[in-house]
Design brief:
- There is one protein chain.
- The chain has 219 residues and is α+β, with helices and mostly antiparallel strands.
- It has 2 domains: 117 residues, Beta-Lactamase (2-Layer Sandwich); 92 residues, no CATH class.
- It is 58% helix and 17% strand.
- The chain has a 5-stranded antiparallel β-sheet, with helices on both faces.
- The radius of gyration is 22 Å and the shape is elongated.
């Protein structure tokens, strides 16, 4: 292990049973720490423990637990992003019934996908890339919520202006992050810019259409 911000172990467990795992490093005494966290009765929580020069991060939701172990150089803001995607891929692939009926290490076919996810998040170039993707999703979600409010409640023009300001601020934050990312990952940034431009164009088109409708009503 190089100690430059790596995930050395990951597993997915259900009700205390480890169903899938991947390790790139001899675990040794870490195994007892893993068993303690996997068997915790706490659910719908995020837990972080420090052991020697390692960090153990557990995400538990609906009794599905995702645990990763990293060195102490791994970016703290990546723990939740990494475990959320691992959990999402796992529950998309397996039902609760399958998890209940599985034995320990009974879903080893997920090991390869788990390994690929760990390798993905071990790539330093992906750290900020993943964060920007998350910002895009958050902005898109807010846009959808605003459209739903307009359709359901007939939002007033003044309220729409306030929402528009917030959307523009979010778009500006995204643009700033995308500009910084350009120095480190030029080709990936091209894709991000295209997505950002598309989102902004959608904002502008929707706002222009809505404002035009309000103007026609008032005049």
């Amino acid at each position: 292990m190089s100690g430059n911000g790596e995930i050395i172990y990951g597993c997915v467990a259900f009700r205390g049973k480890i169903l899938s795992s991947h390790s790139s490093f001899p675990l040794g005494q870490l195994e007892s720490q893993i068993n303690t966290l996997v068997n915790t009765e706490k659910d719908n929580v995020d837990l972080m423990n420090k052991y020697d020069r390692y960090v153990l991060y557990l995400k538990s939701k609906d009794e599905v637990k995702v645990l990763i172990i990293t060195d102490d150089q791994y970016p703290k803001n990546q723990f939740r992003i990494t475990t959320e995607e691992i959990r999402k891929k796992f529950v998309e692939r397996y039902s609760v019934t399958q998890m209940l009926n599985a034995y320990d290490n009974g879903m080893m076919e997920f090991n390869e996908e788990l390994r690929q996810l760990i390798e993905k998040y071990n790539n330093p170039e992906n750290y900020r890339f993943n964060q920007i993707n998350k910002d895009i999703d958050d902005t898109q979600q807010q846009l959808n919520e605003n459209i739903a409010l307009l359709a359901d409640r007939g939002m007033k023009l003044e309220d729409l202006d306030d929402q528009t300001v917030q959307l523009v601020e979010n778009a500006d934050n995204f643009k700033t992050q995308a500009t910084k990312l350009k120095r480190a990952m030029w080709w990936k940034n091209i894709r991000l810019y295209l997505i950002g431009i598309a989102v902004l164009l959608i904002f502008v088109v929707i706002i222009v259409i809505i404002r035009s409708d309000f103007i026609e009503i008032f005049y």
